[in-house]
Amino acid sequence: MCPNPCSAASKDITSTSRLFDALLRGGLDELVLTAEGLLENPVFIRDSSHRILAISQNSYNDPFFTALQTTGYFEADVIKGLKKRRRMYAEDCFSGRPVLINFDQDKPDLLTMPVFVNGTIICFVSVAQLNRNFQSEDYDKLILISKAVSIEIQKGDFHTQSIGLLHESILIDLLDRELISDRSKQILDNRLDLLDIHLKPNLFLIATQLPDKLSLPKKRSLAKEVHSLLNGVITCVYHNCIVALITREKDAPFTQEQESSFLQFLEDCSLVAAVSSSYSIVGRTHVRYNNLMEVLDLGQRLKPGRRLHHAHDIFIYQLLQGCSKDMLLMEYIPPKMLRLRDYDRDNNAQMFPTLYYYLIYQKNANAVAAKMNIHRNTLFYRLARINEIASLDLNNEEEVFQLLLAFKILEYSAAESGRPLCFKLDPND
Q1: pLDDT tens digits, residue range 117-170?
Q2: What is the full DSSP assignment across 128-159?
Q3: What is the pLDDT of residues 254-267, one digit of tens each?
Q4: Residue 353 sits in the same domain as residue 376
Q5: What is the DSSP pairing of strand 272-275 with strand 308-310?
Q6: Would you say 44 and 126 are in contact if contact means Cβ atoms under 8 Å apart?
Q7: Which domain holds residue 350?
Q8: SS3 380
Q9: What are residue 236's DSSP bridge partners?
Q10: Nearby residues of 254 by Cβ (< 8 Å), 6 or more positions away
């Protein structure tokens, strides 16, 4: 007699049969219900963006699980715990067997197994230790459940209904870390192929900052609006931002019509956004996102009235921000410019702003006169006085470059200190 092996085999057959029946009935919710019965503990399925795809509906006297049932999303402290213990990324911690995750004494242990489709991780199925302690056979049951979920996910209906969630999952993984190792790139390529995502030569990232008090459903609703406005992009809610990954044939993130619609959306919702320069290596999206956060911060401080900040307009200030850690930037302002600034202060004149606008409008006298609301003759008089006071050679390209850079330094220093600028008529110029 061999009671133990036979009993184990009988249990495996029973488990498989029940899961097969659940597959026939269809749906992730049906699978979760069956899995809960097999494991005698609550079960949930999440994608890698930490959004719940299906979850046990029975009541449990546990704040963590109740929050999952209510919000449908992992809370920030849970995600932080996952990251801290490197449980965020399946290829780092899974080797064909479920993994026991214990990231907080106040939360239940989770037995977690990835769900694979064609060798690519699509989501995760977890069981929470609430009703009874885990047993060794639970590991084998969870492997079976993972395979059943994989079969269900590959059905056409799931892909049709949940393709957006899987797209979000990829984007959040890209934002979380740099994916440049050969293994990471291969996994990413497989996931892109599986979801029929074809990247064009030019990639752009847009980040739209959201108010802290906004609820998650409202944030996700706004993200859907961005998705529809920009057409064919992948969007997600990430670290209190709406992030959109745009892929284009041309070196431009959107058409004039799309930009106009997006600006109107930002205006209507009182939001501010930043858009990256073009890049081509999708695995470096994480780096671009961090860079874009600097663009968003500097843009709002330097040009507070603008709704959309372009990285190519801000990059010089990012360079200055890096340089300011090692040098006193004001030491690089030409003394002749400071003489001009002091002359304005002593004589209530406008020589300094005249020089600024003359340079940024590329010496277009008509444009400068219109901007400053002065006659062309007044402009030429001021330019002559500027030359007398500061001895500037505005026909020397090198000197013009140094003057423009000095104005950028003054802009950046004023933003850092909170001082008003003395050479701008409009802070958003």
Answers
A1: 766 777 889 999 999 999 999 998 899 899 888 888 777 555 444 556 667 878
A2: E-SSS---HHHHHHHHHHHHHHHHHHTSHHHH
A3: 888 999 999 999 99
A4: yes
A5: parallel
A6: yes
A7: 329-417
A8: helix
A9: 243
A10: 230, 246, 262
Q: What is the pTM of this model?
A: 0.60
Does residue 177 come out as left (phi exceeding 0), alpha (psi in the -120 to 50 range) or beta?
Answer: beta
Looking at this protein, which amino acid is placed at residue 369? A
Contact of 200 with 278, CB cutoff 8 Å: no
Supply the CATH number for residue 404's domain: 1.10.10.2840
pLDDT, position 7: 47
**How many distinct structural domains can be found in the chain?**
3
273 and 300 both lie in a single domain:
yes
Inform me whether the pLDDT recorded for 385 exceeds 80.
Answer: yes
In a domain, 358, yes or no: yes
C-alpha–C-alpha distance, residues 58 and 51, integer Å: 19
Within a domain: 373: yes
Nearest to 249 by CA among 207, 208, 292, 198: 198
Contacts with 415 (C-beta within 8 Å, 6 or more apart), sequence order: 298, 301, 302, 317
Q: Are 125 and 115 in contact (CB under 8 A)?
A: yes
Could you give phi then psi for residue 207, rounded to 5 degrees?
-125, 125
**CA gap 34, 22 in Å, rounded:** 7
**Cα–Cα dist 45/29, whole Å:** 9
Helix (H) or strand (E) holding 243: strand 241-248
